[in-house]
Amino acid sequence: MDKVHLVLSTEGGETEICGIYKKWSDAYEAAKSLEEHEEYDSVEIEEWSVQ
Question: pTM for the complete prediction?
Answer without folding.
Answer: 0.86
